Amino acid sequence: MTPQPNPQAGAAVKAADRAHVFHSWSAQELIDPLAVAGAEGSYFWDYEGKRYLDFTSGLVFTNIGYQHPKVVAAIQEQAATLSTFAPAFAVEARSEAARLIAERTPGDLDKIFFTNGGAEAVENATRMARLHTGRPKVLSAYRSYHGATSTAINLTGDPRRWPNDLGAAGVVHFWAPFLYRSPFHSDSEGQECERALQHLEDTIAFEGPATIAAVILETIPGTAGIMTPPPGYLAGVREICDRYGIVFVLDEVMAGFGRTGKWFAADHYEVTPDLMTFAKGVNSGYVPLGGVAISGAIAETFARRPYPGGLTYSGHPLACAAAVATINVMEEEGVVGQAAAIGERVLGPGLRELAERHPSVGEVRGTGAFWALELVKDRETREPLVPYNASGEANAPMAAFGAAAKARGLWPFINMNRTHVVPPCNITEAEAKEGLAALDEALSVADEHTV
Ligand code: PMP
């Protein structure tokens, strides 16, 4: 579709937004949101007719791109037949979505509790773990993001927790492995893995194993920097959790549904958690949906005792119909394989090649359609291009990098000193190369801020 410029309509959208929309995570008067006129596949466009290649997949959720005709049609059809229904009924779209999800999740994660998004999935997973074990505490990693509701934001390790940290009982943070900025000062993946597992064991010992309900980890931490764990780490955590009767929760809200080139990131590591949260890619975000995949043992806890939690819109038919259509499209079009291939053939080699030429790139990490470039002032010292959690003037180098990318028609994902390359899983090779070329030019702007 060719975007038709309509600046007047854009101005009206923008004016109403500025007057009445209260935006997430923002100082309301300091933001200038782009008015979006439309989107298709890997692109969206504004009312001036300027197109952007979306290297962010929205907030890492449009795994099959925008406006896939089969998913749009499925939502329309569901709206025409049964647009809504309360959760305590068996509804075709809901049961079919649950079946398709359960068939793809690892191990015996065969029961699906539906939510409206990721944070509610995390809330319910931690509640299930607490009720299942009768224990109060949950351990989570410092470099993590688990959502913005009350428990989920307390579990989150990144600085968005700080102003929200009102001392919720029972959340304890620990360090997960990350060799590039090793909290354990390790110099090899093997050492990092060993030390991180020892640190987790020590944390559990000093907190009291009998007080710990769950350990929650993102399989591959996303927002915090796409840090693929060293081989053996997740299997080690699984083993520690088993030893102490602790529920192991993997948060796959961002990494799940094809993003990493497998259905779930856990498939890369051959680990099965007791609970697994998902959202985003489950239906490419066309209608809000998330959920928890539940193991047989935890499902058993609530077989004859009611689960004390629920949501009005749990398993909403429109959202579930979108999930059914999305999963079917992913199978028919081989989208999971496409993510693996674009990572192996284009994004991985292309980003590594950029790293060779641009002194601002400290490290390239990732897999599938899930990559991060860590931008630094100095490759030797690894000093980040901007300080941790920089804002305003201190963040100017990243802002300049972002502006340069947008000027070249690339919409980049930026978090602190990183840019994440997280396009739709079905981005074409030509589109990915177009994005890499724009990134190349934008990185030259970042290079100006290196030593
Ligand atoms: N967990 C992870 C790993 C996430 O990436 C996110 C969202 N970025 C969430 C939970 C929260 O999801 P939501 O914003 O849908 O509540």
Explain how this protein is built:
The chain is of the alpha/beta class and 451 residues long. 39% of the residues lie in helices and 17% in strands. The protein folds into two domains: 7-67 and 334-447, Aspartate Aminotransferase, domain 1; 69-333, Aspartate Aminotransferase, domain 2 (3-Layer(aba) Sandwich), CATH 3.40.640. It contains 14 helices and 16 strands. The strands form three sheets. Strands 4-10-9-8-7-5-6 form a seven-stranded mixed β-sheet, sandwiched between helices. Strands 11, 12, 13, 15 and 16 form a five-stranded antiparallel β-sheet that branches. A four-stranded mixed β-sheet has the order 1-2-3-14. β12 and β13 (383-384) form a beta hairpin. It is globular, with a radius of gyration of 22 Å. The chain starts with 6 loop residues before the first helix and ends with a helix. The protein binds 4'-deoxy-4'-aminopyridoxal-5'-phosphate. 4'-deoxy-4'-aminopyridoxal-5'-phosphate (PMP) binds next to α5. Its cofactor is pyridoxal 5'-phosphate. GO terms for molecular function: pyridoxal phosphate binding; transaminase activity. It comes from Streptomyces triticiradicis. This is Aspartate aminotransferase family protein.
